[in-house]
Amino acid sequence: MNSIATHPHLVLGVSATATPDEVRSAYLSLVRLHPPEADGDKFREIHTAYQMLNDPLVQAAAYLKPIEPPELSKIIANAEKSICRLPKLALLALGDTE
Amino acid sequence: MASRKSKAKNRNRSRPNPRPEPQLTAAERSIAQRAKGSGEGNSIEANAAAMKPKPSAGERVEDIAVFSNTGREQLSDELKLECTAVMEALELTYEGKFSEASDRLKPIARSSPYADWRLFVRGLNGFYGGDFEAARQSWQRLDATRRPARIASALWKAVQNEPLGELPQRPKRLIECAQALLYRPSVIAAAKQIAAVKHRDPDVKFTASQVAMLTHFRDDFRKIDKDFVAHFSQACVYLSCTQETPDSFLLLKKSVPGPPHDPSWNLQQFHFMQSFEDVQKELRETVNAYIASDLPKIANMAGELKKAVISCMLLALARAEFNDAQDVGFPFSFSFEPPDYKSIEKQLLTAVKAYATNREAHDFLIEVLEKQLAARRITKAQSTAIEKRLISAKEALVAAFPNEIETSLFLVDFYFDADEIDKANKLVATLSSLRLDAPMAKALPWKVKLREAMSLSRTKSGLPAARSALAAAESVWPAWLSRDWLLFLRAALELRLGNQAQFESLDQAARVACGASQVVGDLMTFAALQQMNVPASALKPLRETVSQYVADAEKLSQSDLIGLGGFLWDLVRTGLQHKGYRLQASKLGKALVNQMKRGEAVVRNEAFIGACCWCAHFGFWQTGYERKSPGWFKPIAASEPKAAAAFVAWINRDTYAARQLIANQSLIELVSDAAKTEKDPFYRYRFEETALEAKQKIAEYEADRRTPPGWYSVNDLDDDDDDDFEDDEIDDEVCFCDECVAKRERQAANEARRSGTTNAKSKPNPLPSFLKYDNPDDEDGDEDDDVVDEDDDDLGFHSTAESQEPDESPQRAPRTPEERRAADKKRRKELENKKKQRR
Q: pTM here?
């Protein structure tokens, strides 16, 4: 059972759909900020949250959470800001001289 | 080589404008025509994506080999390997796997003819990743006479957004192609068009015409920008699940591949279908399809996680089936239809089997079985079968969670009742080895001996041993428990042994020792005789007397009722209720509550506090669905932590406890503070546990409120119907051409039909074949259909205290979407009541 203060995702600052790598990365960076010898309580809190997120049941609950529908306009706006990768042959054809 | 300063200057210049001037207007026009089915759709991107490289005159064979088999045949074996690595790296870069692409090229030496390609791919990775400076640094070292440099140049110029007028026709054309492929204006324009479709009905999010547009969009552009097309299409599928009709989703599900975790959209369909009714079969099929075919295909998931997912999904399915049956007709009628318990049990048993430590699945299975057991119309045979399954469920829970003290204690009692002493002793040994802090766990040796004495007293051969077992229990009697009843138990055992005179003298001494009145003494004796298995013939006179007390409970004096309450509280908290307890408790409890209402002065002794705890533990005063304390109890709870703890524990057991707990936060603090100073270990432990559980429930509720409103958010209910009415009143700019007028009439007719459907049922049906627009119950077409009839109370709208049995089953705060949805409905009921009161 999690309260706001001890909610594992909130403690580690990751989203509910974060991958195990993202969770580990967030955990390591927080441990660097709050090492056990400097801030024992905070470290315990972070470590507990990490252990909870490694619990398959917690992961499964996050996995099965309904996904909020993303806004189409935001997806389009993001696409407009980025560039698209070119298919291999089309990319190679850019080097043609004739 | 450029100087440092000039490099810096170049760097500033080279930062590309992410938005060159795309020829959007023409492209948009083209897409618009395409969406209307004109058949014209050959955008510049489509043409550019179809380009194929051609060898140039005098081009190096190593460069030709990257795209031509002819060139590759002329290479040495070593170069062939390097050429293959370059080809693979280019594919990987296109897939977005940049680090894998770089790794593939590591074996290429600097002196190799393919070193330029290695540099090019490194720059390309930076370019696609938005690090244009890294791309520039890699690409400026390329041999300008070779193909990699020419490709890099075209790409670079494509993102510069500079006029191309002075360039020769061929390079200009190539740069335009690169621009088209990099910025895909037609793709963006087409996506914008799909997203920009306006709906007059705010509940409609994605229509069938948009589905058709999306199909064209995918056909035209998935080869140009497959990532964006996939992402956008998936977003459309999610959007289609936010509306009340399933048609768009069912169409999209077939044509749009799902995300990696849900390749066939079965998981999404499961979530979506839960908002419809009469879909148990479809829900089961969807879950089975996901578990049987989708989950095994997900490669990057650990085996344990897969098991946990299966378990959680089956639990969610069981909850959905259970809630669906509870929701029938709500809030317009209350035709209760029992859930398909057989199916629900099956799902939960599989869930528990798939992942043994899924606590929620265990709890829900026990809850479902207890609900079946509490149903009024079940036969003795059915009841026995359910009890058997309940015991199995509790055994599974204890096997998965050995620390589960309450269930373990229940099982110990059950094993003793069922004469399964070996099982009881085994469980007691396990619990003892865990060295649990709970006082009841520490008192297990006492309870085991006491239960042993009770068990042995069943048979004549066991009677001598029963006496020594009772003596052993006496030697380890818990310090926190009154010894008053021990004397009655001794007397009862004497009667069981046939020593009538001994019984009478001991019983009399016991009554004197604890100062019990005639009524209280009779009940204590009766309970002891039942526990010591005194034959029915010997018990009969006292049974009749006690039954008479219960029947005339309202006539008993306040002090008698308090004495009875204090004694029964001891039985409840130690789990030693006698067989007749269930028949007596409710009436005696309510009589005590009625006495207390009269406000007569009372002495706050141990018995009185125990009686208050007993009343609060079961909420004998409850008349509505909310758990509130009556006026007479408030000052007692405010000053007596034991009573406060019993009251808070009673609220904790309510499914929707959080808001009631928030209203009683001062009591929670009182209990929490008392835990630090209380000397009685039983109450100290109880205070700690109760306050902790209450605080956790409040914190979870607050956390839920903080999350943004989702599909099932409680906050959604705050939108009053009046808001919709105001929306309807907003006048848009209206066109009065014949076509628009006809269109509006069609829409109005559709809306009228749909509103008929939503009034008739609380939830729409997902399958087209089930869509019903006629409401047989709504013949008058009354606009006030959503108003709850004032007679609803008489139809069982509120559960009344008279209809309730003492409830000890632990209940949780709503956590999952299904539970929140149920909470929403409860809250809607509250709103209806408030409206009614206002009227």
A: 0.64
